[in-house]
Amino acid sequence: MGDMHQPLHMSGREKGGNGVRVAWNGRVTNLHSVWDGLLIAQAVRLTPRNYTYPLPGSEGAFVEPHLRGAIYDPYIRRIMHEGLSVGGKFDPESDAWSDCPAPAAALESATDSLGAKGTVAYALSLLGLGDSARMEALLDLDFYGALGLTTRPGTENEWDDESVCPYAWARPIHALNCDPTLPVWPHGLDGPGEHEEIHGWHELPYDVVDFLDMTILDGEESAQKGEGAHAQGGRPRHPELLELDTPAYAGRLARGWVVERLLAMAGVRLAGVLTDIFADMAGDLQA
Fold first, then answer.
1. Of 98, 57, 99, 52, which is closest to residue 268 (Cα–Cα)?
2. What residues contact 47, with CB distance under 8 A and at least 6 apart?
3. What is the pLDDT of residues 51-96, one digit of tens each?
4. N or C: less crowded end of the chain, CB within 10 Å?
5. For 125, left (φ over 0), alpha (ψ -120 to 50), or beta?
C-alpha cells in the first residue's frame, strides 16, 4: 500500500528512475533513491524544533501513543497537525481518500474497455467461472493468456471493488510522473523539446535556510533549471549530473507538500484497509 504512493513505483521509465544518475547535495545517487528516502530525510532534518515536543490535547491523545521515539516522530507530528487536523492542508480532501468508485460505475468502466467478447468473459468471471482475463483468452484460443502467462489490456479495471481499489487510487499518483508543474521526473533529464521551459527558484543554500519559508524568495529572480549544489570554491561537485537538492526541484515539491500529501494518503488508506480486515476478524471471532 505504501509503495503505491511513491510515484516512481508507478513508472517503468529507466526502471522507475533507478537507471538515472543524478546529484543530491553534491553526492551521486539516482532519481529513485531521491524519492525513496532523500526527500523525506531532508524534510525530517528541517522539521521545526517545536515538533520534538508531544502534541497537546485531543490531537496528542490520538497521535502520541502510536509514536515510537524515532527520529522521524517530529515529522509525523507535523504532517498530522498541519496536514490532517481540522482545517489542515489536507482536511477538505482527506475524507475521500479511501473512497472507491461505485460498483456500477466500476463495472461500466470495465465493460466499456473490454468489448463484446471481453464483457462475456467478465460476466463469466462474476459467476465464479474463472478470471475474466483468462476466460477471454480461452475464448480467443490464446492458451498462453489462458494459463496466465500474459495479461491483456484492461485487466486493471477488474482489480477494484467497493472497499479496496488500487487501480483507482494509483491512477492519479501515476499521473504525477507526467505532471509538467511539479515535476517528479525532472525536466533537466528530458530530451530537447519534451517540455517547455519552466523556470524554478533562485538557488539558495538549503543547509542554512528554511526552504518552506517563501518570504526568503521575495524579489529573487527565477533560476535556470539544472543549477546544482556547489562544493567549496563555487564549482559543482558533479557538473555532469543534474543536481536535485535545489529550490527548483526539491523546493518546489516541499512548497506544495507533495511528499507529505502522498505519505498522509498512504497512511489513511492503509489504516482503512487494516481496520476493515481486523473488524472482519473480530466479527468472525464473535460469531
1. 98
2. 74, 75, 78
3. 999 999 999 999 999 999 999 999 999 999 999 999 999 998 999 9
4. C
5. alpha
Report whether 59 contacts 41 (CB < 8 A).
no
Amino acid letter for position 159: W
Distance (Å) of CA 86 to CA 58, 83, 249:
12, 9, 29
C-alpha cell, 51: 515538533
DSSP of the chain: --GGGSGGGG--TTTTTTT-EEEETTEEEEHHHIIIIIHHHHHHHTS-GGGGSPPPHHHHHHHGGG--S-TTHHHHHHIIIIIISTTSTTHHHHTTTT----HHHHHHHHHHHHHHHHHHHHHHHHTTSS-HHHHHHHHTT-HHHHTTSS--TTGGGGS--SS--HHHHHHHHHHGGG-TTS-SS-GGGSPTTSS-----PPP--GGGS-TT-GGGGTTPPPPPTT---B-TTS-BS-TTS-B-SSIIIIIHHHHTTHHHHHHHHHHHHHHHHHHHHHHHHHHHHH-
- Whether 261 and 57 have beta carbons less than 8 Å apart is answered as no
- Whether residue 4 contacts residue 170, with contact meaning beta carbons closer than 8 Å, is answered with yes
Distance from C-alpha of 225 to C-alpha of 190, rounded to nearest angstrom: 12
**pLDDT score for 215:** 39
Take residue 265 and report the three cell numbers written for it. 494518503
Digit-coded pLDDT (tens) for 137-182: 666 666 556 555 556 666 777 788 888 899 999 999 999 988 877 7
Amino acid at 80: M
Identify whether the C-beta of residue 211 lies closer than 8 Å to the C-beta of residue 167.
no
Query: In angstroms, rounded to a whole number, what is the distance separating the alpha carbons of residues 134 and 150?
Result: 9
| Beta-carbon contacts of residue 6 (< 8 Å; ≥ 6 apart) | 35, 36, 262
